[in-house]
Amino acid sequence: MFETTILYQANREAAEKVIVNQGGTSSGKTYAIMQVLFTRAIEEPRQVITVVGQDIPNLKKGAYRDAKAIYHGSPDLQMWFGKPNESDRVFTCLNGSIIEFTSYADAQDAKSGKRDYLFVNEANGITYDIYQQLYLRTRKVTYIDYNPSARFWVHDKLIGKKGVKLFIADHRHNPFLSSEDHEK
């Protein structure tokens, strides 16, 4: 379906309810998680998968852009999913699963809707209160990623707790980078 990395395998095989991906720029963490979510959408009919960012512009430049690149690079995905709904930022699978990209203004706003899978992209841009409301309304697995620029709620409230898996990655985990990008 698509070429994957060790981060894809690690996230796909993790058994914990919360999977935290800490990694630097170009480590491939967001891309790998998006591949996992496409896989889950296909393998498990009628799943609701929500990808959350601090705001829509950040999502469009990050996770949503990666999702479109994965989709356009895979004829198999194009058979499973119609063209993404650009205005609502939703991928709809033939089996009824959806992958939606959104943001929330506050914890009250985050109380709307339930989902099977949650991906909190660049979590250091989202408050813990918003995360908590989203997590409470997620049935299966929550994926989190961020660049390790400063300590925040993930370090204080999640890492080291039962049911939380931490992956740490850097550019060396991304075999698809050019040698010039690795050098940077």
Keywords:
single chain; 184 residues; 7-stranded mixed sheet
Please provide a written account of the structure.
With 184 residues, this protein is an alpha/beta fold. Helices cover 35% and strands 22% of the residues. It contains eight helices and seven strands, in the order αβαβαααβββαβαβα. It has helices at 6-13, 29-43, 56-61, 63-72, 75-80, 128-136, 153-157, 179-183; strands spanning 18-23, 48-52, 90-92, 98-102, 115-120, 138-146, 164-169. The protein has a seven-stranded mixed beta sheet, with helices on both faces. Helix 1 crosses helix 2 and helix 2 packs across helix 4 (63-72).
Structural topology:
Elements: H1 6-13, E1 18-23, H2 29-43, E2 48-52, H3 56-61, H4 63-72, H5 75-80, E3 90-92, E4 98-102, E5 115-120, H6 128-136, E6 138-146, H7 153-157, E7 164-169, H8 179-183
Parallel strand pairs: 1-6, 1-7, 2-4, 2-5, 5-6
Antiparallel strand pairs: 3-4
Helix pairs in contact: 1-2, 2-4
Question: What integer is the average pLDDT?
Answer: 92
Strand content: 15-25%
Shape: globular
* Total beta strand runs: 7
Q: What letter string, H or E per element, gives the SSE order?
A: HEHEHHHEEEHEHEH
The main β sheet shows up as: 7 strands, mixed
Gyration radius (Cα, Å) is 15 Å
Structural class: alpha/beta
Oligomeric state as shown:
single chain
Poorly predicted regions are: none
Number of helices: 8
Distance between the termini: 30 Å
